[in-house]
Structures are given as structure tokens and as C-alpha cells.
Design brief:
Layout: E1 2-6, H1 13-24, E2 27-30, H2 31-41, H3 44-55, H4 61-73, E3 79-82, H5 88-100, E4 107-112, H6 115-123, E5 125-128, E6 134-136, E7 155-156, H7 163-177, H8 179-186, E8 190-194, H9 199-210
Parallel strand pairs: 1-3, 1-4, 2-3, 4-8
Antiparallel strand pairs: 5-6, 5-7
Bound molecules: adenosine monophosphate (AMP).
């Protein structure tokens, strides 16, 4: 099963993707996580992408697609792409790369959320350094301050969670990524889910949608 989860930053698609991947037994391919790991590991890719990540700007398409081809398309059979594609050019490259392998996407899920709610969520976000689980300072605080409920790892605030970076990421989403909603609708691959609903509701709607594909 090859899936794309689409939506503005803050829509919870990363958390959904990680839960869906675990439940369905497919690989969770987050380009954000791949890039952050590269920055942490001090690799060549990491050095190139660091400034983009810190500023909340998109990494250039060619580099992003090359990384996805190597780390996901060539390495895995079933996956959910989270945070990729983020531009029409990336979607075209993905389609072409899959076609070269005689493959195609099975479904695209669009997690819809308005900017006001996305901003509240993102500026209060806490992330586990160890397992990547997300919490929120106000809406979903961890049981013990600074400690992950899931694995006991240390929680931190991502460098792109400042109001300025969040506003930039949302603007960039509307300009470059939102056109993918129509792009995938035209290909009859798209379903939209209201991401302002409680997490477990969104998750069960997602799993229900994927049932015929399993
Ligand atoms: P995320 O964790 O998905 O919010 O991604 C964090 C950052 O990684 C983004 O703000 C971008 O700088 C970069 N990034 C992740 N995915 C992509 C992509 N598909 N294209 C370009 N940049 C990306």
C-alpha cells in the first residue's frame, strides 16, 4: 500500500501517519524526520538542509525527491508518505518515479485544518526527542513535564515552532502545497478528513478509509 498524507502543518498528519503505519504494518516515511535526522547526523544532506529547516522554508525539490527515492521508493514496498510531496513539481517527480518502477499511489488523504487552529497547535507543540511523539503545552500536555508518556524520552520545542516560522510555513503551504489537493482530486485519489476533530476520531476515519485497500 502506497499512501500520501497531505495537509497544513499542525493538522496532525504526522501523528496519524505514525499510528496508521503501526496499525497497518507499513513504513512511516516523514521527509521532515529524514531531514532532521540528517541534520543531527551532520551528513552532507543535513548540512545543506539545515538553514531551510530552521527558517521553516522548503528544501529544494530535486534534493527532496532524490532523498525520497533513495530512502523510501527504493527501500520500501508499503509506506505512507508524510510531508511529501509538498509542491506540484515534487508530485510530478513522484508520479514519474513510481511509473518508472511500474507502481502508483493507492490513496491520498487530505487532513483539512484552518490557519487559526494550526497556529495554536504548532506554537504549543512539544516533540519527543526519542520516539517523535507529539504533545501540546495546553491541549495535550504530557503527564510529567518535559517527559514523553510513550517512551520516557525528553520533550523539546522544534526550532520551527516560533510564531514567525509557523506563519511562514502556513503561507508556504497555501502557496505551494495546497494546489496538490486539486491535483490529486483530478486523479481520483483524494479524500478529505476534518482534522479539527479529536485525534481518535480522525484516526478511526482514516483506518475506515484504508480498509478496502488492505
Ligand atoms: P515537517 O516535519 O514535515 O514539518 O518538515 C519540517 C521541515 O522539513 C519543513 O519545514 C521543510 O523545511 C523540510 N521538508 C520536509 N518535507 C519537505 C518536502 N517535501 N519538501 C521540501 N521541504 C521539506
Amino acid at each position: 500500500m502506497k499512501l500520501v498524507f497531505l495537509g497544513p502543518p499542525g493538522a496532525g498528519k504526522g501523528t496519524q501517519a505514525s499510528r496508521v503505519a503501526e496499525k497497518v504494518g507499513i513504513f512511516h516515511a516523514s521527509t521532515g524526520d529524514i531531514f532532521r535526522a540528517a541534520v543531527k547526523g551532520g551528513t552532507d544532506v543535513g548540512k545543506t538542509v539545515k538553514d531551510y529547516l530552521d527558517g521553516g522554508r522548503l528544501v529544494p525539490d530535486e534534493l527532496t525527491c532524490r532523498v525520497v527515492e533513495q530512502e523510501v521508493l527504493d527501500a520500501r514496498k508499503d509506506y505512507v508518505l508524510d510531508g511529501f510531496p509538498r509542491t506540484i513539481a515534487q508530485a510530478d517527480m513522484l508520479e514519474a518515479a513510481l511509473a518508472r518502477r511500474g507502481q502508483k499511489l493507492d490513496a491520498v488523504i487530505h487532513y483539512a485544518l484552518d490557519d487559526a487552529e494550526a497556529t495554536v497547535r504548532l506554537t504549543g507543540r512539544l516533540v519527543c526527542r526519542k520516539c517523535g511523539w507529539n504533545f501540546h503545552k495546553v491541549n495535550m500536555p504530557p503527564k510529567k513535564q518535559g517527559v514523553c508518556d510513550q517512551c520516557g524520552g525528553e520533550l523539546y520545542i522544534r526550532s520551527d515552532s516560533t510564531l514567525e516560522a509557523v506563519q511562514k510555513r502556513l503561507a508556504e503551504y497555501h502557496e505551494k502545497t495546497e494546489p496538490l489537493v486539486a491535483y490529486y482530486a483530478r486523479r481520483n485519489l483524494l479524500t478529505t478528513i476534518d482534522a479539527s476533530q479529536p485525534f481518535e476520531t480522525v484516526l478511526s476515519q482514516t483506518l475506515e478509509l484504508l480498509r478496502p485497500l488492505r
